[in-house]
Amino acid sequence: MLATTTILAATMLGCQPAGDAEISVPDGFTATVIHEGVGPARHMVVRDNGDVYVALRQRTDDGGIACLRDADKDGTYETIEYAGRVQGTGIALHGNWLYFGEDFRIVRFELPEDSLTPVGDPELIVSGFAEEGQHAAKSIDVGDDGRLYINCGAPANACQVQMRTPGSPGMDPCPILEYAGGIWVYDANKPRQQHTRDGVRYATGLRNCVAIDQKGDAVYAVMHGRDQLDSLFPQLFTPQQNADLPAEEMFRLEEGDNGGWPYTYYDGGRDERMLAPEYGGDGKTPAEKGKYTEPIQAFPAHWAPNAILMYGGEQFPEWYRGGAFVAFHGSWNRAPEPQAGYNVTFTPFKGGKPSGDYEVFADGFAGSDEIRSPRQAAHRPMGLAQGPDGSLFICDSVKGTIWRITYTGGDE
Amino acid sequence: MRLTICFAVTLLIAGCGDEKPAEPTHQDSQKSVMPDATAVSVTNGQAIYVQSCLLCHQHDGGGVPDMQPPLVDSAIAGGDADVLIDLVLRGIGGKPPSLPASGKYAMVMPGVPQLTDQQIADLLTYIRQEYVQAGPISPVEVAAVRAKLE
User: Is the complex ipTM more than 0.90?
Assistant: First the structure.
């Protein structure tokens, strides 16, 4: 039997679908809605004391950080407050500081020991990011090493001379890689740093890794692969091939690694890195071997990985410990095929590497079997966090519904 | 096949009480009363939409939240023809001559100057009929806007 939780499914244009959407989780787990909707959510974190912080895409009059507290620890978060004149994607905790990643600057707020809400004005930590459209969302993580990791998505699909234009070749070398298309690392405690002057490019060749988690001596990241293979190169790729290419790649990144964007893409069917058509590829020519970092797992195309959480808790059974949960926002670009993703997967790990294929862990967010456009999805998984007791939190970008997943299956 | 899907989805949307009028917008029902030239334009325009615009603005013109705006009921799509032609030729949010981005969407729009005047007229005639119920656009109008850009 699947443990389920009933959620109110708001669909596109605010009308109710035939039935309520439910999310499913594996046997032994229970999913509880802790808030029906804090507002369109991006990333989230949970503090040691259990308080939950959610970054909002658009700030309310009271602020762009939703702060939730369950004072009596009965599982109901009776207090919710909004704070911070910020809006965006990234959010991270480090000591008594709450870091926030807006699209073009990273700030932090003081978060006193017993305070639910951050206090005072935001302190500027890093600014100077290029203000271009596409992939501007800054996801952030303060690593185990106390440094601030920032995803700087590339403002491009494949670094073409003419942006998203059929047949246009790729720029070589791609100038974007000097300031974006990678993960940069900064001093977490130094105010007013300038991108790229004061930071270090930790890893490059990454189109857009909204999903990052620094653990131990690596950054685990899942990349949004490029799109439009068929519409940009119709003589080389069919719409069907575009629906299945390229794979969304999961990386274990060490300093200096290169994920191969924009020169390559990963073909999950062939299990091989391929030369991108903008750089002379034809869908059949592999990329130069050994030049780029290999993915540690390949996910289906266009699922849009928006959060990764390396599970460090003990509440879940042994199988889950040290493994990776990934939240997939769901595709918008698989037409004429139905859209896909809209789930949370789990990949078991051993010794820093996946020890098996991914499995869908939580599903049913979209609330409908066939999604032809993201607007039809009742919920889209967006953020992941781990509670102090090892519970898993998931938030969605449509309404900001928050689920808490606990293991209730008793002893293993 | 694709037409059938679009139609079914249009009906679905119309059937769940959104603000869009529930009148059928499917072209077949209007073809018979349309002047032939416009009917041909719409058919050709739809094929161009599928190839060049559908990815972003979606199969039903509804767009993608925070990424691409809907064309359904878009004031721009249904508004001044010269403004619409200019936008489609130049695109939005890229390098000049691209128009500046509105800042509301996490995506940019490529212009399609490589399409012929006739193709752009067909495409926009299709969009205006299908999504905003506005009048057709002629290749002469497209040529005039293009001349001003060059």
Answer: no
